[in-house]
Every structure is written in structure tokens, then in C-alpha cells.
Design goal:
The two termini are 55 Å apart. This protein has helices at 49-55, 84-96, 185-200, 236-260, 282-289, 313-324, 342-352, 367-383, 426-433, 440-451, 455-463, 467-476, 480-496, 506-517, 526-536, 549-563, 572-584, 590-603, and strands at residues 3-11, 29-35, 60-66, 100-101, 104-105, 107-111, 121-135, 138-149, 153-158, 161-165, 172-178, 212-219, 225-230, 269-271, 293-299, 330-331, 359-365, 391-395, 401-406, 413-415, 422-423. It is α+β, with helices and mostly antiparallel strands and 608 residues long. The chain folds into 4 domains: 9-177, no CATH class; 259-399, Gyrase A, domain 2 (2-Layer Sandwich); 440-544, no CATH class; 549-603, Arc Repressor Mutant, subunit A (Orthogonal Bundle), CATH 1.10.10. The strands form 4 sheets. Strands 1, 4, 6, 7, 8, 11, 12, 13, 18, 19 and 20 form an 11-stranded mixed β-sheet that branches. Strands 2-3-10-9 form a 4-stranded mixed β-sheet, with no helix packed on it.
């Protein structure tokens, strides 16, 4: 059964959380320094699995210092006092979601050794818990609202060196976590829309790509998979659907493994480099030229499970080794292929002593790194009998996901000793209660009534965070339906034609709506003006000047004379309107054209 929860991470538009630096992104680099991060044991003497796997990459981290970073971001001095403006926003959000507010805020350290924080941990604090929101699908629980610091911005990574910029590190971040109450991919998207609106309605959040991210927690058979860092709302539903299908495949795979009952406890890593001394495979040959080895394993009972119409477990294993820094794997379900011939496959089967139901996997890598990767592959194969593996995955632009690391455990959290507790007073709570903005449904209704548009149109404006733009254009040209059509129909249609619409900014649209309000153009001209602007880089109104009625009458009569004899359609009026609007190229109002056309047809006794 599908169930999901969602975590929303929203940057705040305030100063940084533990210093007075600005939170604007800054590309002016003043200097840099280098660090290496290693995992440490928790107070109970345990290591976090995600941190251990991250350390296997053996990376060095370079940090770029910017004007809006200081010794706090460099981890060269303790954090300053907590940003109270950010804290109050977090309390306000908690109240909006009917949460129970903590009496005292205690910051914790969450271990993060992917290099995104110079300290090796992220500071985070629980602000509210046990809340809820009501939706058309039912009540969704809000487990927690947390205030934490944003990670550094990743700039580049190659050959074991990752480069981060400190401009983003320390920006206040609100994390809202729902319970596992979402029963379909559609509910996932709806919940994200409602939560996103609530955060934006505080007027204290940053805007733009990357300022808000969603993490999905999805389960179909009991184990939880986290999809981390979805930045585009329109991908949420696709990712949820993909992950549901992937997990169902893994559950089915587990049942098949149980049926076959293979011995997976005695899998041995073998060096099969000698088989490929004369190989035609470019991938393997390039590796051998670097001094790499070809290593492999026999996987008992897995023939047909690594890749088939039903199963694609080989892809899961390839994602695991990629994280460690190895490009991928070769396996028997897809060989011969990639330049590996039938004779090499036969020799591999002899070397591994595979039976008819067995599979094999090989990789090309530096010997120690390759063995380390295969040990992790073996571990993952053994876990396959349990079905879905609890792990953290990343989103791809096509709506699929990829393995990132094991799911973090409780071992990654421990108290922050450099930040004193902060008391939440009743006075603060009462003051913030008076600042709670409208609900999602109230905001949709308000937009619909204010601009004279449908509830569906109002919801789209709200979901795509275009209310400020819409309000500005409405103040210039007060026709909500025309503005909606330009923003949500015409521009996407032009983009669908393969044209680059990135240059159509608010300034361009302001000029167009001003010309519309002044009567210099009619609304039908807008698509033509925008295409002309994209092609020539200028806004041209003169050639789209509206025709006077006499000129329009003459053109309509001419078009009727030229085409009336060829029209067999019952809808003669509709067919002629199509011809006319194409010929007029936006130089006449559609209602006026239709009115004149009807008079012309009536005079000629033509049935509509």
C-alpha cells in the first residue's frame, strides 16, 4: 500500500541564522581554504551508516569565501546569538499548522560529512510538533516544524575534489515534516502546494530556484525511502509514481528470490583481469591502461533478475557503485554487449563456475576501491530478499530517482553545546497568533473574487507563486482572464514551439499590458508581438496597430468571396473565423471580427 510523507525546506529572507551576514547569493570569491571531513562515533560508540558510506569517497573539500561569509561559516569561531526574526517566523509557521510549540528551543548537531558544511554537522532545532492541516483529501498530520541552517552551495566536483561556496551556508531554513498520511502521488503534490503557500504567505521567504526543496518519504511495503531535494513542484507526482513502481518491483523481486532460495552467504570476489588482455571493449581497455583491475562475483540464482522485462536490479547495483566513484557494472543479463564478446562471456562463466540460474557481475576499478565497491554490492544483494532497502535517493529531471546513500540513523544527532537554550514566551506566541495569514482555500477564493477568474485559475496562480506578478499586471490592465491567458497559456504555448521565452520578463509584459490598456494593440496581437520580440529582441507595436472598421470590413468581405465556395463544413462561420484571424495577425479584436463576419454572411444568406 502506498503511503508517503513530505518534508518542505524553505529558505528565509532574513540575515543568516548564527551571524549578521546577508543571505543573498554572492559570486564574488575573496579566497578559499581546504578541509577533509571524517565520521566520528556517537556518544554510544556507534557510526552513522550514511556518514560511513560518504567517507568511502575519500574527497577533499575546497571552500570559497564570499563577502557575506565570516568566521562562523568557516568554523573558526562559535556561532553568534540565534537570529530572533528567523526564530519568530518558525514559531509563526508552527502556529499556522496548529502545532504545539516547545517551551524552550534546543539546537542539535546533525552529522553531515558530504562537505556541505564546514563543521561536519548541521545545526537544527525543533520548534513545533503534533500539528495538522485539513485538505480535501482529509487531515494531514504535521509531525514537526524545525529551524535549521542551510548548507553551502556546491559549485564543482571532479577527481575527488568538491568545491563549495559559503554564501549560502547559514541561511535560515524552515523544515516542515508531515506524517505518512498521503495515500497517492496526487495527494503528495497537493500537500506540497498547501505547505508551500503557507510558507510564502509569511512574506519572509526567499524566492527563486533552489530556495524551496521537497523531500519525499515513500513506502509501499513498510520500509521507508527518502527522495531528497526535489526543487520543482511539477516533478513531485512523477517521482512519487516512479518510486511506487520501483518499490513494487523490488517487493516482487524479493518474492522471486525467496522462491529460488539461493545461497548468498558465500560470494567470493575474483580477479578476472587476464580474460580481458585482448578485449575489444573500450570501457575495459581504458581502465586497464590506467592500471585498473577487472574484478567480479558470481551471484547464485540471480539469472534474469538483474535485467529483464520484469526486473531491473542491475540498475540498482550500478547506482550503488557510482556513488563510490565507479562508473557502473557489467552483468551477465546484458552480455555479450559493450564490446565484450561471447568468448569472454564463456570464459567468465567458467571462471565463476556459474550454473544455468546464476548471474555474474564485473567492474573495472583500482583494486582496493573495486573490492570495497563489490563488498557493498554483495551486501545490497543479500538485502534484496527483504524487498525495499531503506535509503536516501536523489531526483532526476525526468522524474526518476537514483541511489545516494543509506538512510541516516539516529546516530547522526547529538546536542549543540555552543548555542544556549532559548525560551519561547507566551507573549511571543500571542503576538504571532495575530499575524497568521489566510488559509490556502481562503487565498484561492480571494484571488478568484478579486480578479474575476475561476477558482481553478486562482489556484494555479497561487501554486505557481505568481500572485505578485498577477496583481501588478492587473493594476495596469484590469482584465484577469486576459492576464491569465498570457501568463499560463500563451507563453507556455510559445515555449512549446521550441522558442526561448526566458527573455520575456516583467518589463516586457508591463509594456504589452500598458499598450493594451491604451488601445494601441488588441489582445489578439500579444502572441505575435511576443514571437517577434523573441526573434528580433525588440517590442514592436506599430505593425500590430488595430485596423479601423472600414478596413476590417473590406478584408472580411474579400476573404468571404475567396473562400465561401470551397467551404463544405456545416460550421462555415467557424472556418472563416480561422482563416481571418490568421490573415489579420492580431490586428483586430476577435469579437469585432466575428460581429462583422456574421453581418456579411447574413446579407449573403449563408447559413452558419
Amino acid at each position: 500500500m502506498f503511503k508517503a510523507g513530505i518534508e518542505i525546506h524553505q529558505q528565509l529572507n532574513t540575515k543568516k541564522l548564527f551571524c549578521s551576514c546577508d543571505s543573498d547569493l554572492n559570486d564574488r570569491v575573496l579566497g578559499e581554504f581546504t578541509r577533509v571531513l571524517r565520521p566520528v562515533q556517537s556518544e554510544l560508540g556507534e557510526y552513522d551508516a550514511a556518514a560511513l558510506m560518504e567517507s568511502m569517497k575519500r574527497r577533499t573539500f575546497v571552500y570559497q569565501v564570499t563577502e557575506n561569509s565570516c568566521l562562523v561559516e568557516m568554523d573558526e569561531e562559535p556561532p553568534h546569538d540565534v537570529n530572533m526574526e528567523a526564530l519568530e517566523v518558525a514559531v509563526l509557521v508552527s502556529l499556522m499548522f496548529n502545532c504545539r510549540i516547545v517551551d524552550e528551543v534546543h539546537f542539535m548537531r546533525k552529522i553531515v560529512i558530504d562537505g556541505s558544511n564546514t563543521t561536519g554537522f548541521q545545526r537544527t532545532a525543533l520548534i513545533g510538533m503534533d500539528g495538522y492541516i485539513d485538505t480535501k483529501f482529509g487531515r494531514i498530520s504535521i509531525r514537526s516544524v524545525c529551524l535549521e541552517e542551510e548548507a553551502a552551495r556546491k559549485i564543482d566536483e571532479k577527481e575527488g575534489i568538491a568545491v563549495y561556496r559559503l554564501d549560502r551556508l547559514g541561511i535560515p531554513l524552515i523544515e516542515v515534516t508531515t506524517g505518512p498520511d498521503l495515500k497517492s502521488p496526487q495527494e503528495v503534490k497537493m500537500a506540497a502546494q498547501i505547505l508551500g503557500y503557507a510558507l510564502r504567505s509569511t512574506k519572509k521567504v526567499r524566492r527563486g530556484l533552489g530556495s524551496i526543496r521537497q523531500d519525499l518519504n515513500i513506502s509501499t511495503d513498510g520500509e521507508r525511502v527518502e527522495v531528497k531535494g526535489v526543487s520543482r513542484l511539477n516533478l513531485l507526482e512523477k517521482i512519487a509514481l516512479y518510486e511506487m513502481e520501483r518499490q513494487e518491483m523490488l517487493s516482487s523481486l524479493a518474492e522471486e528470490i525467496k522462491r529460488r532460495n539461493p545461497d548468498l552467504e558465500h560470494i567470493e570476489i575474483l580477479d578476472v583481469t587476464d580474460i580481458f588482455r585482448e578485449t575489444k571493449s573500450k570501457l575495459i581497455r581504458n581502465g586497464l591502461q590506467k592500471g585498473h583491475r577487472v574484478l567480479g562475483i558470481r551471484v547464485p540464482g540471480f539469472s534474469g533478475l538483474l535485467k529483464s522485462d520484469r526486473y531491473r536490479f542491475g540498475k540498482e547495483l550500478a547506482e550503488v557503485v557510482k556513488v563510490i566513484g565507479i562508473p557502473g557494472i557489467f552483468h551477465s543479463d546484458e552480455l555479450p554487449n559493450y564490446g565484450i564478446g561471447e568468448n569472454e562471456v564463456r570464459l567468465l562463466r567458467e571462471k565463476f563456475s556459474t550454473g544455468d540460474n546464476d548471474a555474474f557481475i564485473i567492474i573495472v576499478a583500482e583494486e582496493n576501491k573495486g573490492k570495497e565497491a563489490l563488498l557493498y554490492v554483495i551486501q545490497r544483494i543479500r538485502k534484496a530478499i527483504n524487498g525495499v532497502n531503506p535509503e536516501t535517493r536523489g531526483p532526476r529531471d525526468d522524474g526518476t530517482t537514483e541511489f545516494l546513500r543509506p538512510l541516516p540513523g539516529s546516530e547522526r544527532m547529538y546536542p549543540e553545546t555552543d548555542v544556549p537554550p532559548i525560551r519561547i514566551t507566551e507573549e511571543m506566541i500571542e503576538r504571532l497568533k495575530g499575524m497568521i495569514p489566510k488559509s490556502y482555500e481562503e487565498a484561492i477564493r480571494d484571488i478568484s473574487e478579486r480578479y474575476g477568474i475561476s477558482m481553478q485559475q486562482a489556484q494555479q496562480i497561487l501554486d505557481e507563486n505568481r500572485e505578485d506578478d498577477f496583481s501588478f499586471f492587473y493594476s495596469i490592465y484590469p482584465d484577469g482572464n486576459v492576464i491569465f491567458r498570457v501568463l499560463f497559456n500563451i507563453i507556455p504555448e510559445i515555449e512549446g514551439e521550441g522558442l526561448d521565452v526566458s527573455s520575456i520578463d516583467s518589463g516586457v509584459l508591463e509594456k504589452i499590458f500598458s499598450a493594451l490598456a491604451e488601445g494601441r494593440i488588441v489582445k489578439e496581437a500579444i502572441p505575435y508581438i511576443l514571437r517577434d520580440f523573441i526573434a528580433n529582441g525588440r517590442i514592436q507595436f506599430d505593425e500590430f496597430k488595430p485596423m479601423d472598421e472600414d478596413e476590417l470590413q473590406a478584408i472580411i468581405e474579400s476573404v468571404v468571396d475567396e473562400n465561401i465556395g470551397d467551404l463544405k463544413s456545416r460550421n462555415v462561420e467557424g472556418a472563416l473565423m480561422g482563416i481571418l484571424m490568421e490573415k489579420l495577425r492580431g490586428r483586430a479584436d476577435g469579437e469585432m471580427v466575428n460581429s462583422i463576419l456574421r453581418r456579411v454572411l447574413e446579407r449573403r444568406g449563408v447559413s452558419k
